[in-house]
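Hi R.,

Quick one: here's the Protein-disulfide isomerase sequence you asked about.
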Amino acid sequence: MANHPSSKDRRNAAREQARQIAAAQAKKEKTVKTILYAGIAVVVVAVMAVVGTLVWQSSRPVAPPQAMVSGTLAFAAADDGIQAVQPAGEEEGADVSDLPTVADSGAAEGASVVKVYLDFQCPGCKAFEEANGETLTSLAEDGSIVLEYEPVAILDRMSAGNQYSTRSANMAACIADSGQSALLPDVMLELFAQQPGEGQSGMEDDQLLSIAESAGVDVDADVAHEDAATVRDCVTEVAFDRYVENSTQDALNSEGVQGTPHITVDGEPYEGDWSNREAFAGDLIRASGQN
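And here's the predicted structure, written out as tokens:
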């Protein structure tokens, strides 16, 4: 007669089967959790690596263009016309060794330093240059003043998304970095002459380069920037975008600039009426003690 498992044996077998199923399920869940946690850990490490890289890149000093110090270009009298000279101030990594000092230029002793902060998308800056560009150049040519320009990028939002303020200021930096900064006054005047309207798309790269070439810039000349070979490359790759951003923030946060055009005379904000060409010129001459 065959032996049949008792009710107790069946219950024990059922319990053992349930225990085995539960153990297998727990093992499976543990494996899933291990994989999940490992995946999360990999993602966290990857995110931390990306964040660390971005932080390192943002904190890394940005090499300035040749001939510029803290975003500034300086011009003074030469034997014939004006020449680029060493801007005042200091900036880590700045190389202005190829430029004469103001003392070695034809600037008169005690000549005031007139500095203009400008944005190439700014209608007020265009009006300022139309009213006073020739006067400033003339005063620099005869040694009455030392003329400084600092292009900043405040109005990128006004160029239909193509970051024209940054890109045009970047081109100025590219030209300076190629050793052709003496041509920048002419380039800047033409940039204002062809200024896009606010809210319209800013000029494209080929238009910017055409303006530079019309002012005599060799756009195929080498630049010192490690990530660009020529002025053309520097412009199309916007190689100095971080430099423009940093110098703009310095102007806004540390140098008292609240808008453009912003004019200083020997470091002090100009409080007169720059729209009156004769009065403006007279104020500058008197500031230099030449009245």
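The first strand starts at residue 73 and ends at 77.

Cheers,
M.
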